[in-house]
Design goal:
29% helix, 29% strand, alpha/beta, 9 strands, Rossmann fold, three-stranded antiparallel beta sheet, 6 helices, 217 residues
């Protein structure tokens, strides 16, 4: 897994606006957002429910096209969602192998090594129904890493986990970010999760209201 060079810009949003619906049902999910994400950054994307976090994450992932404004993306991107969303009839190994095949990434780590990296070497043949919530989320992380991302985008990755399991998952993602060098953006409504990052973006009603670098620990 070789990340792009430090300082390379992976994503730029210029006056990005996303509007859902029409007429009386129109909702502006994002309003004229300007930001950039550089290689190797660890960014917390914080805001209340409905603030536009998921929409912005999907824009950065290339899953949502802005109604107005401009987005420039480079490098490989992978997403970890709130729910693991594993293929139920595939084993942990097969879920990771399938993502690696579909992405065409062909990174330097195979599925077994990636599952070992997230602490699941003993669960290669386990089906999703046989995994705990934390284990399933770790498979989802391995599946994302199988795509050899330069930018890993996590949408409330601990939202369905208890606090202890969630903390361990966050520790894992942070350690992998440091080790592999990919940029990391974690969307969360929890300020304690957001402030694990080096930089926090705060959204309120679809507007980017603060962009703050945090002091090193």
């Amino acid at each position: 897994m070789t990340a792009v060079a430090t300082g390379t810009t992976l994503a730029v949003c210029r006056s990005v606006t996303v509007v859902h619906g029409r007429g009386d049902t129109t909702v502006t999910a994002l309003h004229e957002v300007d930001l950039s994400i550089a290689a190797n950054e660890h960014v917390g994307l914080w805001g209340r429910s409905g603030s536009g976090k998921t929409t912005l994450l999907h824009v950065l992932a290339g899953l949502t096209t802005p109604t107005y404004g401009e987005v420039t993306l480079s490098g490989r991107r992978a997403v970890v969602f709130q729910a693991a969303n594993l293929l139920p009839s595939f084993t942990a190994f097969e879920n990771v192998a399938f993502a690696r095949h579909v992405s065409g990434a062909g990174g330097d780590r195979g599925p077994a090594e990636l599952l070992e990296l997230v602490g699941l070497a003993a669960k290669l043949d386990a089906l999703p129904a046989e995994l705990s919530g934390g284990e399933a989320q770790r498979v989802a992380i391995a599946r994302a890493l199988a795509q050899a991302p330069d930018l890993l985008l996590c949408d409330e990755p601990t939202g369905q986990l208890d606090s202890d399991t969630g903390s361990r998952v966050l520790d894992l993602v942070g350690a992998l970010h440091e080790r592999a060098g990919f940029a990391l953006v974690i969307a969360t409504h929890d300020p304690d999760v957001a402030t694990r990052a080096d930089r926090v973006l705060t959204l309120d009603d679809g507007r980017l209201v603060t962009d703050q670098a945090l002091p090193s620990a």
